[in-house]
């Protein structure tokens, strides 16, 4: 065996998105040896997405608050829904503002923090499965060999690695949905600097101006149908980043813990972007899972109740988001996410 095949760390985190990076940072802060495995060689360029201002608290926890605020991200005041502006609120320092981010630059900021804390990042590697010992996850299997670890965190996003590796159960809460995203040059300006959310076809359209040069857009539509056409005021504009679709059918893995393994971010649960908390949930679940794991290492005799508490917390987040989305769509008279009786009973 090579030295690589017998390498040992405290924790392997699979996936270098916001959830995996948040977990790696919190674990490395505790002095644990963390290996972060990512199948992509570099972050991919994707259309901008929007962050609720509440993310700032989580970024402070991860030690990147100042660096993030210094990133010159476009800001927005709130969301205009059917002509009504919903602001985020404010405090003595002024109104709260959201952020429009490009994921590749945002993830690079988090990765730099993780590396500075001693996290080993290996890109271009694919995890084929989990190493097992005594009925629990004890590392990962790579093409190059096995890596032993005391714990594994699944942050594989919509690949849902642990669903395959551990036979988790997928629970579905909506009809099949796809979100189409892209960026165009120019675009309409909102007089109050807000993003816009409106009905479009069977679904909805989200648009946000990123500054003087570009706008980002997202369309939600039923999965399995051709991509819906953009409205005329966007369709004729030059493309900055091409349209890309992703499956955003509401779903969650159950359970989100197994001996030696926790599941975070989109690997744990997926909702369509109208939930408005994709990155927030990724960061928060990554932090919460890492803190749970640290507690398990400090008090191994409490592992079972600690894991159960994380699973219960995550399930409550899922239930909250499902309820919120159903209420939003009911208020807008939208039925595209509704599941038929047969699907709901499956």
What features would you describe in this structure?
The model is unreliable at 1-6 and 341-346 (pLDDT under 50). A hairpin with a 2-residue loop joins strand 16 and strand 17. 30% of the residues lie in helices and 34% in strands. It is α+β, with helices and mostly antiparallel strands. The relative contact order is 0.17. It contains nine helices and 23 strands. The radius of gyration is 21 Å and the shape is globular. The strands form five sheets. Strands 1, 2, 10, 11, 12, 13, 21 and 22 form an eight-stranded mixed β-sheet that branches. It has two domains: 4-46 and 102-172 and 250-332, FAD/NAD(P)-binding domain, CATH 3.50.50; 177-247, Alpha-Beta Plaits (2-Layer Sandwich). Residues 9-169 form the FAD-binding domain. Pfam families: FAD_binding_3.
Spatial separation of the terminal alpha carbons = 47 Å
SS element count, helices? 9
The fold-level CATH name of the largest domain is FAD/NAD(P)-binding domain
What is the chains' assembly state?
Answer: single chain
- How many individual domains? 2
SS-based class: alpha+beta
C-alpha-based Rg, rounded: 21 Å
What are the salient characteristics of this protein?
346 residues, FAD/NAD(P)-binding domain, Alpha-Beta Plaits, 2 domains, 7-stranded mixed sheet, 30% helix, 34% strand, disordered C terminus, FAD-bd, FAD-dependent oxidoreductase, FAD/NAD-bd_sf, Flavin-dep_Halogenase_NPB, FAD binding
């Amino acid at each position: 065996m090579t030295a690589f095949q017998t390498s040992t760390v405290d924790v392997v985190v699979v996936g270098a998105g916001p959830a995996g990076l948040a977990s790696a940072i919190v674990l490395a802060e505790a002095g644990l040896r963390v290996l972060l495995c990512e199948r992509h060689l570099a972050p991919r360029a994707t259309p901008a997405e929007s962050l609720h201002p509440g993310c700032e608290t989580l970024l402070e926890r991860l030690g990147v608050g100042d660096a993030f605020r210094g990133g010159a991200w476009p800001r927005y005041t709130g969301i205009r829904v059917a002509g009504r502006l919903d602001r985020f609120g404010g405090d003595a320092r002024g109104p709260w503002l959201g952020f429009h981010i490009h994921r590749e630059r945002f993830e690079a900021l988090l990765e730099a923090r993780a590396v500075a804390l001693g996290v080993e990042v290996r890109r271009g590697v694919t995890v084929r499965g989990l190493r097992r010992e005594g009925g629990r996850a004890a590392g990962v299997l790579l093409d190059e060999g096995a890596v032993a670890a005391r714990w594994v965190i699944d942050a594989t996003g919509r690949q849902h690695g642990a669903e395959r590796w551990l036979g988790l159960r997928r629970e579905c809460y909506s009809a099949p949905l796809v979100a189409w995203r892209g960026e165009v040059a120019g675009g309409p300006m909102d007089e109050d600097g807000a993003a816009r959310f409106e009905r479009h076809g069977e679904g909805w359209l989200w648009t946000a101006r990123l500054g003087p040069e570009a706008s980002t857009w997202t369309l939600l539509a039923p999965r399995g149908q051709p991509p819906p056409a953009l409205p005329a005021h966007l369709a004729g504009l030059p493309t900055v980043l091409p349209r890309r679709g992703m499956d955003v059918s509401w779903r969650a893995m159950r359970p989100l813990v197994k001996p030696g393994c926790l599941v975070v971010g989109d690997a744990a649960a997926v909702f369509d972007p109208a939930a408005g908390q994709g990155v927030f949930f990724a960061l928060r679940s990554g932090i919460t899972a890492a803190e749970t794991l640290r507690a398990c290492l400090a008090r191994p005799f409490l592992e079972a109740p600690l894991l159960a508490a994380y699973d219960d917390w995550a399930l409550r987040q899922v239930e909250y988001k499902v309820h919120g989305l159903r209420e939003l769509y009911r208020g807008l008279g939208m039925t595209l996410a509704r599941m038929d009786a047969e699907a709901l009973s499956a």
